[in-house]
């Protein structure tokens, strides 16, 4: 089906449908990131059974699942050009894949190290922010004076929130970091 023959409501050229796809990807990203972090913490705390996949002595991290899922979704979007529910499902799968991959961003950035690297959370915040902008931001060309003022206020609020988040996470890292590293070491075979 060509772009011209797609119904307007389900076409990727339709901004409302594109916004919907971005919102689905954002929702899947946030839910998966929270679930992944929660499961890893519960496994390390030995509150649930070890669900990690091991190949011999090698722990297959969930970023690998994300990479394969990203490749599959990318191929499907490139070769299949889905519309409607198929596009919605692909957007949701894309969000899941992005969360699985960027949840361990620090590990693939530094080629190892602890799961609890700050770079992973920072990357997840950036990815979520970009998806949120794609999902909810108005076109810059349609900004009126009130939108510019609201954007500036929001920008200042985001910067202040970032400063507070950084200082709180640094404090929590110093406070809980050693305990989390110990849990991680104890949970590996």
Return residue spans where pLDDT drops below 50 for at least 5 consecutive residues.
1-8
- The helix-strand sequence is HEEHHHHH
Rg calculated over all Cα atoms: 20 Å
What's the overall geometry? flat
Number of strands: 2
Number of helices: 6
How far apart, in Å, are the first and last alpha carbons? 51 Å
What level of helicity do the residues show?
over 70%
Structural class label: mainly alpha
Mean pLDDT: 80
Tell me the strand order in the biggest sheet.
Answer: 1-2
Strand content: under 5%
Query: How many strands, which pairing sense, and closed or not: the largest β-sheet?
Result: 2 strands, antiparallel
What does this protein structure show overall?
With 189 residues, this protein is mainly alpha-helical. The chain has a domain at 8-139. It is built from six helices and two strands. The protein has helices at residues 15-44, 62-80, 84-102, 105-109, 118-136, 145-187; strands at residues 53-55, 58-60. A two-stranded antiparallel sheet has the order 1-2. A hairpin with a 2-residue loop joins strand 1 and strand 2 (58-60). Residues 1-8 have low confidence and may be disordered.
Secondary structure topology:
Layout: H1 15-44, E1 53-55, E2 58-60, H2 62-80, H3 84-102, H4 105-109, H5 118-136, H6 145-187
Antiparallel strand pairs: 1-2
Helix pairs in contact: 1-3, 1-5, 2-3
Summarize the entry for a quick read.
The protein is mainly alpha-helical and 189 residues long. The chain has helices at residues 15-44, 62-80, 84-102, 105-109, 118-136, 145-187, and strands spanning 53-55, 58-60. The protein has a domain at 8-139.
């Amino acid at each position: 089906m060509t772009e011209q023959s797609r119904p307007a409501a389900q076409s990727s050229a339709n901004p409302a449908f594109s916004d919907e796809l971005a919102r689905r990807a954002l929702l899947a990203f946030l839910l998966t990131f929270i679930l992944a972090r929660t499961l890893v913490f519960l496994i390390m705390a030995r509150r649930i059974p070890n669900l990690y996949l091991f190949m011999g002595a090698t722990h297959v991290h969930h970023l690998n699942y994300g990479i394969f899922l990203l490749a599959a979704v990318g191929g499907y979007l490139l070769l299949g050009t889905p519309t409607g529910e198929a596009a919605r499902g692909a957007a949701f799968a894309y969000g899941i894949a992005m969360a699985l991959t960027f949840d361990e961003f620090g590990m693939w950035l530094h080629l190892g190290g602890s799961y609890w690297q700050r770079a992973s959370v920072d990357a997840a915040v950036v990815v979520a922010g970009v998806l949120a902008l794609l999902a909810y931001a108005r076109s810059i060309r349609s900004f009126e004076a009130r939108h510019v003022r609201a954007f500036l206020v929001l920008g200042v609020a985001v910067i202040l929130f970032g400063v507070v988040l950084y200082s709180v996470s640094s404090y929590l890292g110093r406070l809980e970091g050693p305990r989390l590293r110990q849990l991680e070491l104890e949970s590996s075979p």
